[in-house]
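Researcher: Dear colleague, please comment on this protein.
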Amino acid sequence: MIIGVPKEIKNNENRVGLTPAGVAELRKHGHTLLVQAGAGGGSGFDDADYEQAGAQLLPTIADVYGQADMIIKVKEPIAEEYPLIKENQLLFTYFHFASGEALTHAMIERKAICLAYETVELPNRALPLLIPMSEVAGRMAPQEGAKYLEKPLKGRGILLGGVPGVKPAHVLVLGAGIVGTQAAKVAAGLGAQVTIMDINLNRLRELDDFMPKNVVTQYSNEYNIREAIKTTDLVVGAVLIPGAKAPHLITRDMLKTMRPGTVLVDVAVDQGGCIETCRPTTHEDPTFIIDDVVHYCVANMPGAVPYTSTLALTNATLPYAVKLANLGWQAACRQDAALRLGLNVVHGEVVYKGVAEAWGLPLVDVAHVLEPVTA
C-alpha cells in the first residue's frame, strides 16, 4: 500500500502523523511511505531521519494526497485539504465529526473512508488511540490553568499550590476519565486542593483509593456543580461521550456566580465542549474572557508538546496502521471490532451513530460498507 504522511497545517499544530520509527516498521511490511518534506520538523524529526527510515520525500501536500492510498495524520483535514482528498482514499486521523458539521459534509462529498482515532474502542470501552493524547491534555490542563491564573494574564492572581500560611487554589475537575484523572493528579502534585466529579460512583471509589489526600471525589449533578464553582479558582472540563457532542455542564448563567479571574480549561472543546461559553481557540490566541472569567479552549493542546505527543500517538496508532495497510481497510475492520468502530464516514455515508445524531443525517449499518467487493 502507498501511505502518505502530510505536514499538519492546522494553526500551531506541530505534531506529525508518523515518526521515522513508524515509517521503518511499515517499510518492513513492504509498504511505500511518502512523507511531505518538513512534516516532522515541528516534532524534532528531520527529513533525513525519514529518508534513512525508508520514506520518499515529496515537496508538497498535494503530491502526498495525490499519490497515497492511505493518509496518516494527526488532526482532521481543514478546508484547504478538502479538495485534495480522493474518493476511496483512507484517512486515518482524529476527526471529531460531532463538533464539525462542515467537515462532516465535506467528507461525505469526497466519498473517502474516514477512520477516526477517537472512536476506535476496545470491548472494555477503552479508547486506545485517544488515551495517549488524553493523558497529555490532562496533564497539561492544570499547567495551562496555573499560568492563566496569573494576574498579568487576567487570572485571579493565585498560586496553584499556595505557600505556608496561605491556602492553595481550589481546582474542580469535571469528569473522572483519562483526562480528568491525569488533571487531578498533576493539580494535586502542584499542591492544589482538588475536587473531581463524575456520575460513575464505581470510578469515584477507585479514585478515592489511590488519589492523595488533597483530592476529594464528589458525585456530579447540576446542584453540586453550581455550588462548587462559587469557590473554585480553576475548572477543568474533562467530559467525553465517544464520538458524540459533550454535554454542557457549565452554562452561561453560571459564570456570574464565579469569582472574577476564575479560569476555565475545556479539554472537551474538540467535541463541542462541556462549558457552554467555550469555543475553539488556538495556541496563537488561546484565551478569551466572558463575565470576567478566563476561557482557555485550545482544541489541540497536545500540539504544544509535539515531541512527546507524536511519540505517544505513534506508539498507539502504529499497530492499527500496520493492520490496515497489510489487510486493506475492509478486511482489517471485519477482523478487528475495535477498528471497525473507528469507521465514521465511508463512501459518502455516515456509519457512526454519534455523528448521524449530531447533524440529523441518515445512519447506514457499518456491515453494509464492509461487504467484500465481488466481481
Summary: The radius of gyration is 21 Å.
